[in-house]
Amino acid sequence: MTNLTPKGRRSTIRDVVADMAVGSNIWETWNRISYQVFEAIVRDDARHSQDDANFQPNNTWLCVPQLISNLACLTSVAAVGNGPGEALRRELMNEPPETGPTAMNMPRSLMNLVGDELRQWENSLHSLSKPGVFTLARRILVHPKFTKSYAYNTFVTLNSLGVEMKIFDGPGEIVQWIQKNLRLTTLLTCPYELWRCGEPHLKKENPKEATPRDVILAKSNQRCPLFIWASYFQITFKSGIFESESVFTMSGTPDVKGEEMYIRFHSEKPKMRYCSSGRTGILEVPTNATCVFLYFVTDVERSTTGPQLVEMIREVQKTTAETHTAYIPVWWPHESVSNVAKGIKNSLDAEPLFSHGGFGDFAMEDAEASAEFSKKFTSSIQHFDSVTVFHTPDTTSIQKVVLQVPSYNVAHIRCPYTVIIYDDKKKMPIYFGRIVRPKGVDTKVQSVGENEHKPRPSRWCRLM
Fold it and tell me: Distance between terminal CA atoms of the chain?
């Protein structure tokens, strides 16, 4: 069947692929998928805290361009020949099941275009974030005992999406990689959970506890590489809007230990926007970049989708700016990773990826990727995403929260809340964040390097 363009000429395969890769419907699909994965990670954390009274859920961050690049990387290799990633590739590219073989046979061209689109967006964000920072790094970490050769198309995919293939050379090298690529010198310990059994940071475990089956399972997990993606966003604000000289509490005194601390935004011109829809409230805070905004959302309904959140943002942008002061619970820098593998598996059509041979050419033959953290397994896809403000607030100076009527002039955000860093030019979220553990007064912070080599509790890395 011959396809014609609006001008009447024959369409080429590249025309078809280009339409799929850069259309607005694809961006909306990426927004929907990203929020689904983010919500799945948050819900899994909440379930775990309900099952284990000793487990405290962590704050969660997810970088949208990082997730999309990870999905594109996986599906470009694992989807070849109707492989285990084919269903996920169709979902990623908003491609109906009845689509013919044109796009299916062009994964390399398709992912080149996806890579180009993401690269343009990332470069734009890098420029917009100044004098703040937006940096990212992507690496596939291979166990030194299970190296292999790779097909040409695999290397083309890695190059297109800016992914480094690296044989594991110790946790210290990973820390150096993050510090160099993200310009995050405050990170001093490896945030990722590495393979179980025999790695340096786990050698203190009692070897007598390991059974032959445990060893077999651990080695099976080692046969699959780790997708370790990392990003860092440092937010800057226009002069005077963000008050970094003090933090605020409801009592205004340093004597109430553990009391929730707030940062304060104050701006008379221009003012901030705040509106509510049902139980959900949403506050817009402008940043130093004209098209990058912070949105703080409370009481998000479980049925809400990514596109619906964007529609809510558009409605907020239509309202009159009347809010001059906002109090936001302080979130704190952390060293925890997000189990993106679990989020992908629980929310997308990705079950085949976590079966034998699911990672295709990226892993050893018949290797099975893991979506769990346990004594025998580590998650095969882990993202480290860090979001901070340009000037860290001074927590030694505490003032009292001052609320007033009418309430729309002063916004008071309470935990838990969702953070959206939004690119208004692209009409896309850059980050989704879920803050459930605010900073408290005199909360003890572990000293840097403390317990660095001890097994980490539960399935998450320790907080700073």
Answer: 60
Per residue in 114-137, pLDDT (tens digit) is 889 999 999 999 998 888 899 999
Q: Which residues contact 260 (CB under 8 A, 6 or more apart)?
A: 249, 250, 329, 415, 438, 439, 440
The answer to whether 138 and 160 are in contact (CB under 8 A) is: no
- Rounded Cα distance, 115 and 68, in Å: 10
CA distances to 167, 364, 365 from 145, in Å: 9, 11, 14
**Whether 409 and 369 share a structural domain:** no
Phi, psi of 112 (to 5 degrees): -60, -45
Rounded to the nearest 10 degrees, the angle between the axes of helix 64-78 and helix 152-161 is 170
- The larger pLDDT score, comparing residue 148 to residue 259, is at 148
Question: 180 CB contacts (<8 Å, ≥6 apart)?
Answer: none
- Number of domains comprising the chain: 2
How confident is the model at residue 292, as a pLDDT?
93
Nearest to 89 by CA among 355, 348, 341, 354: 348
How big is the chain by its Cα radius of gyration, in Å?
23
Secondary structure (DSSP) of 209-232: G--HHHHHHHHHHHTS-EEEEEEE
| Domain match, 227 and 262 both | no
